[in-house]
Automatic annotation (TrEMBL):
Source organism phylogeny: Eukaryota, Metazoa, Ecdysozoa, Arthropoda, Hexapoda
Superkingdom: Eukaryota
Protein name: PiggyBac transposable element-derived protein domain-containing protein
Origin species: Parnassius mnemosyne
One protein family per Pfam: DDE_Tnp_1_7
Cited InterPro entries: PGBD (IPR029526), PiggyBac_TE-derived (IPR052638)
PiggyBac transposable element-derived protein domain location: 1-231
Basic and acidic residues: compositionally biased ranges: 270-282
Span list, region Disordered: 258-283
Family matches, as PANTHER family: DDE_TNP_1_7 DOMAIN-CONTAINING PROTEIN, PHORBOL-ESTER_DAG-TYPE DOMAIN-CONTAINING PROTEIN
Any one Gene Ontology molecular-function term assigned to this protein's record: sequence-specific DNA binding
Transmembrane segments: none
Length: 323
């Protein structure tokens, strides 16, 4: 949800969401929250492939995202994970035809009359009990698992085994107990939640510019989304800054690259001056200058400067300053 409190035909109200009023958007993301695809919800005119219309709104959104993944041209073993709003047995069949893997929780009334044990009977069994059925050609599996409540899940990629151990708190015994957890539930818990993680990261430092145009929240959200994705890539490359520190560094770099040079007297340079741009190894050239200035590295007088950084740097210190 993109927060918006004005008047617009596409504004939604969803009870129970952290952001109840605003523009709704379908999002596909990785496990860590890197956003791969986003499509604003526009009611019946939402940009989804018309051939998926008969499968319903949720299925058409997932299949459109799958088409985007396939269109990238990478022959990768994608595994798409989604919640029970989207999952239906026709959706599993379509994703299987595309050669992709998928796992998702499913509502009991969307299992196409799969002959599973009823939830009432499964609750009477011990905690950790599971009941499952597979299609005649073993295309996909639907299972019910007794956890705190009955948990229904379907997958065309993984099954029940190998089962794993899961720690839960028992109200009757007043202590932690260990129960068996199906493999497909472990996979779902591991890879689900990337969209929620990206929403949480963006909400911490959202742009607070207010405007009278309805598209301003969408525009600022795109900037926040691009910055969040950049931070995710930075962390993948072993970056040590947190989200706020990375956002500050981006802001400093943008201000320095777009500021106007003011005529002012000598002053001590800011300790974060050109912290990132001076080390990017792009378009840093030594040029002569008419007046002597202090070198940013050795603080001696020099007659040369860096064209990109626009600071005085002597030739001897040029490589050290930019590395």
């Amino acid at each position: 949800m993109i927060p918006y409190y004005g008047r617009h035909g596409c504004k939604q109200h969803i009870k129970g969401k952290p952001i109840r009023y605003g523009f709704k958007a379908w999002v596909g993301a990785t496990r860590l929250g890197y956003v791969l695809w986003m499509e604003p919800y526009q009611g019946a005119t939402t940009m989804c492939n018309p051939k998926y219309k008969e499968l319903g709104l949720g299925a058409s959104v997932v299949l459109t995202f799958c088409d985007v993944l396939i269109s990238r041209g990478f022959d990768l073993p994608y595994h798409v994970v989604f919640d029970n709003f989207f999952t239906r047995t026709p959706l599993l069949e379509e994703i299987t035809k595309k050669g992709l893997r998928c796992t998702g929780t499913v509502r009991e009334n969307r299992t196409s009359s799969c002959p599973l044990i009823t939830s009432k009977l499964l609750k009477k069994r011990e905690r950790g009990a599971v009941d499952y059925r597979t299609t005649h050609d073993n295309t996909f599996i639907i299972a019910k698992w007794h956890d705190n409540n009955i948990f229904s899940i379907a997958s065309n990629a993984v099954g029940i085994n190998p089962k794993q151990s899961a720690k839960r708190f028992s109200q009757s015994e007043k202590r932690n107990i260990v129960i068996e957890e199906p493999h497909m539930v472990s996979i779902y818990n591991k890879y689900m939640g990337g969209v929620d993680r990206s929403d949480e990261n963006i909400s911490h430092y959202r742009i607070g510019i207010r405007g009278k145009k309805w598209y301003m929240p969408l525009l600022t959200h795109m900037i926040d989304l691009a910055e969040h994705n950049a931070w995710q890539l930075y962390k993948i490359n072993h970056g040590k800054l947190d989200h706020l520190g990375f956002r500050r560094r981006v802001a400093i770099a943008l201000i320095e690259s777009n500021r106007k040079n003011a005529k002012r007297g000598p002053s001590r340079p800011y300790h974060h001056e050109h912290a990132d741009s001076r080390k990017d190894q792009m378009n840093h050239l030594v040029i002569p200058q008419s007046k002597q200035t202090r070198c940013r590295q050795c603080h001696k007088k020099c007659l040369t400067r860096c064209k990109k950084c626009d600071v005085g740097v002597c030739v001897k210190c040029f490589e050290t300053y930019h590395s």
